[in-house]
Amino acid sequence: MSNPANLLFIGLPGSGKTTFLAALWHVLSDRGSATTLKLTKLSGDRTYLNQITKEWRECSQVPRTNLQSEQVVVLHLDGDGFGSFDLSIPDLAGEAFKQQLTDRRISRHHDAFVQAATGVMLFLHPDVQKGTQLTVARQLEATLPGGQEGETSSAGAVPNTWSPETLPHQAKLVELLQFLLERTQRKLRVAVVVSAWDLVESLGRPPHAFISRELPLLQQFLEANDDLLEHAVFGVSAQGGDITVASEKQSLLELDDALKRIRVRQDQDTGQDITKPIAWLLGPG
Amino acid sequence: MADAVATDPKAEGVEPAEEVEPEFIELFSGAALGATDAEVITLRSRTHLVVFAGAEGSGKTTVLASIYERLNHGPFAGFKFAGSRSLLGFEEICHLNRLASGGVQPDTQRTRLTEETKYYHLALRGAEPVAARRDILLSAMSGELFRMAKDSQEDAERLTFLRRADTIVVLVDGERLANTAQRTSAQADAADILESLLDANMVSPSCQVEIVFSKLDRIAAAGQPALDFLGKTKEKFEGKFRARVPRLSFRNIAARPAPPSVTESSEGGLAEAFASWTTLPLSAAHDEQQGAPAPSREEREFSKFGWRHFERTRRNP
Predict the structure, then answer these.
(1) Complex ipTM more than 0.85, yes or no
(2) Which residues of chain A lie closer than 8 angstroms to B22, CB-CB?
(3) Which of A23, A64, A187, B230 is the most buried (most CB within 10 A)?
(4) Any chain B CB within 8 A of the CB of A184?
(5) pTM score
(6) Buried b / exposed e across B200-214, counting CB within 10 Å, b at 16+?
């Protein structure tokens, strides 16, 4: 009998959870690349997986999960040192996490997934809303050639009313992790996945350095709670490029093997093993 | 609603239905804390309470917001950010200094006198790997509240929790101090606030009181006469309060300095100030290692959440 394992995917809308799942299913069912974890047999009901993976294979936007279309997928996996196990992954809507932040409550249905989670994958898109401070913006302005050193005219500028929706990304993600700590009673592993890694790959920084630079509050939170959260950061390009740009999409479609679209980076290592973050989450301590 | 149940024939004689579990589980609010929730935080460990007092516009909330803003950029004053029960509260007071606010000039939401005193929580951890977590509560209070406390029992009761303050920072508005027409008033306002604090029994013998001259960049920009007046103000406070406040100190800061006065190496002295405000007196070092009783079952849901989380986070790494 296989051991059960449960992963929890956390992330705001558009952070790449479903696209990751679609690419994962393609890789596993293709069985053509060397992955740490392999499929032992096909899942029972594959309707949802096939539906999202079809979009991925056609380099189309994988539809976002909404609150009505949430599904739990079960993968039968095996790997050296892992044995056989059934991996359950609920594909939860990013909207649900957004609602947790504004409504300050979690559904019992989602809480059950939190309680059962063996590991957590925290997804974020690299196009983060940084919450730039006016003080910093003005300091930058002052250092630019022709920058104003005097008073900037504020005539006509009426500040917006604050609401939780305006939270910078890093504050939102810290808050989601705080909810997680609130609801669980054990140490958790968290794989932070910077999705659409191809968008920032050219900067040459490893994923953890990206987090450190772009989301320093999140980075500190992860490090300062290392007794409660063991973490690793991965950059994952599941689509392989920007599919909204026609030429890029065409290049991706013309690849002789769709497996080549996938890139996974951890520290200095880049490969095509999309199961790597999952293997890290479920691997030995 | 009660009438509807009573007249419903189906409800008559029917066994009480099993209590249905609510579909949702409440999470902590994340807003700035009231005294009750702030007190719960103090139950779990030796929490350091820093109170900022000052006249309107002296920069109390700006200093408080700036501490969180600095943490948004990375470790600050030797601490890493380990969490906050009032993240939304911090974000709200920082809003007017965000591009997303649509504003042009950095600003801070003012403390409203009529509201319940708000507390802002930070869990911090020293940068060194073996450092333990520290819980810090920050609060900004108008000087007017202390004055009112002298005359009203109700207002005095609002200060009860604040009497636990480990550090009181009395802010003197540097901008007013740099203005010859306003500087004497600014000096007198700050002295009056400290006087009121002492009258309200807010200053325990172990309480650190720091007179902080804010907006240092404005004083420096006003030239030598303003700096001389700053020196004289310190002397005046020293003479007037030293005997009654054993742990009295002075500091100049610019929490949110204006661009022309900022260089990369200058951060306005806030980090050094924050490290000083949160330094535990030696006598408290022992207390920090001690446990504290769990809150009663009657505590609010947040309190229970908080306790559960804190119970686990108490474990040193």
Answers:
(1) yes
(2) 108
(3) A23
(4) no
(5) 0.86
(6) bebbeeebbbbbbbb
